[in-house]
Design goal:
mainly alpha; Four Helix Bundle (Hemerythrin (Met), subunit A); 6 helices
């Protein structure tokens, strides 16, 4: 991995671990139920991180993989739900798989590398110029969402991530 991108990737990994760690131990029911007035569930947020963050930005935008790039115009709101019949385990497995694929893309990327695909149908006036900016954007988004799941977890059962994973030994 590029030396400039490595610390950003490390910070992103910590935020990914935070998201997974704070959700650890919640029941299927708690993972599926909306807690905040906006109506999203923790599983729906995890689907958003899987599809609209990890798959969208890394294989889709940076690598321009056709099977992902072709889905870039579907709109983020289409991915803030969990399909009927999709298990909790499948949602978590999809997120981990998307992270692995994203990491593989990042392993060969350079900071100045331009995106291979850009969803002009979604963002015709906004564009991130290179991998460096994309990684910073993704890190910011995942960190923001890790805070969201922190708040939800605290509302559900009082657990917090203050000082690290409350379930680590």
């Amino acid at each position: 991995m590029n030396a400039e991108l490595a610390p950003l990737r490390h910070a992103l990994d910590r935020q990914r671990e935070h998201v997974l760690g704070i959700l650890e131990g919640l029941s299927d029911e708690d993972l599926r139920r909306p807690v905040l007035p906006s109506g999203w569930s923790c599983l729906a947020l995890l689907r958003h991180l899987t599809l609209d963050v990890e798959r969208f930005w890394f294989p889709g935008v940076i690598a321009g993989e056709p099977d992902v790039a072709g889905q870039l115009t579907t709109g983020a709101e289409a991915h803030w739900y969990v399909p009927e019949g999709m298990s909790v385990e499948e949602v978590f497995a999809d997120y981990r798989t998307a992270i692995s694929r994203a990491d593989a893309v990042l392993a060969t990327a350079t900071p100045e590398q331009e995106p291979a695909a850009w969803p002009v149908e979604i963002w015709s006036t906004w564009r991130l110029p290179d991998v460096r900016h994309i990684l910073i954007h993704v890190l910011t988004e995942v960190a923001c969402h890790s805070g969201h799941v922190d708040a939800v977890r605290e509302l559900v059962d009082g657990a917090t991530w203050l000082g690290g994973n409350p379930y680590a030994g």
